[in-house]
Amino acid sequence: MKRLPRITALAALLLVTLSLQAKDLTVSAASSLKDAFQEIAAQYERLHPEVDVKLNTAGSGALLQQLLQGAPVDVVAFADQKTMDMAVEKNAVDGVSRRTFVRNDLVLIVPKNSHTSAPSLQDLNRPAVSRIALSNPESVPVGRYARAALEKAGLFAALRPKIITTQNVRHSLDYVARGEVDAGFVYRTDAALMPEKVRVTATVALDTPVSYPIAVSTDSRNKVEAQRFLNFVLSPQGRQVLNKYGFSRP
Fold first, then answer.
1. pLDDT tens digit string along 4-26?
2. 169 in a known ligand binding site
3. Is 221 found in the same domain as 143?
């Protein structure tokens, strides 16, 4: 009978020890990285069972604002260099840890069963195209890329009445997949997730390539673990997952 309290105390001590060893790692990633990072996080947790990776995905602009407002973030991955530049300028990330890890392509898509064909940006001017999904250029990289391409083609002002502004690239993808718009701008990797619902009609030429940077947050509570996760993303194992989802090397 006297042994029970001792055993209970040892069990309690073990639980406390395990809880102290457990580590939460918050990773904020651009919406277009969601599926790839979910798989990378799962693989990382299998290799490091003491770590619980909490993945937060949204438009890069929204992620930056969360970071600047003090949200607990350990690693950030944006869909453009401009957003990361702003994070560095605000000292929100460790500039030394910054790495460009993948590239992507901007594409124009239409609903799979649509009779509308838009093999070029000029075709968006046609009456058959009345609604175009384009993420907010003020805060979402894919929207900035699309607006820059349309402005270079001299089309943005004329097409503005047709544009349906979305919160992020996945919202644009969903709008096109559901047939709520006639066309939309997304990344090639996003379009590849729904081949049965959308089709790519054109790859949009850009002056600035679509490249993704990743970095450790300045306010990370566990910079060693954050850097280890970042290194895993850059590792052959992480690269294999990114390649699987269509991302190319920088």
1. 455 455 544 444 444 445 689 99
2. yes
3. no
17, part of any domain? no
Structure letter (DSSP) for residue 235: S
Q: What is the 3-state secondary structure (H, E, C) of 23-69?
A: EEEEEEEEHHHHHHHHHHHHHHHHHCCCEEEEEEEECHHHHHHHHHC
CATH number of the domain to which 42 belongs: 3.40.190.10
Regarding whether 194 and 219 lie in a shared domain, the answer is no
> Mind listing the pLDDT tens digit for each residue in 168-219?
999 999 999 999 999 999 999 999 999 999 999 999 999 999 999 999 999 9
In contact, 32 and 141? CB cutoff 8 Å: no
Q: Which structure tokens are listed for 42?
A: 């799962």
User: Does the annotation flag 187 for ligand binding?
Assistant: yes
- Residue whose token pair is 């594409």: 107
In 69-216, where does DSSP find H-type helix?
81-89, 141-152, 156-159, 169-177, 188-191
The residue behind tokens 């003020």 is 138
Cα-Cα-Cα-Cα dihedral sign, residues 242, 102, 85, 220: positive
Same domain, 122 and 193: yes
102-157 per-position pLDDT tens digit: 999 999 999 999 988 889 999 999 999 999 999 999 999 999 999 999 999 999 99
Statement to judge: residues 55 and 83 lie in one domain: yes
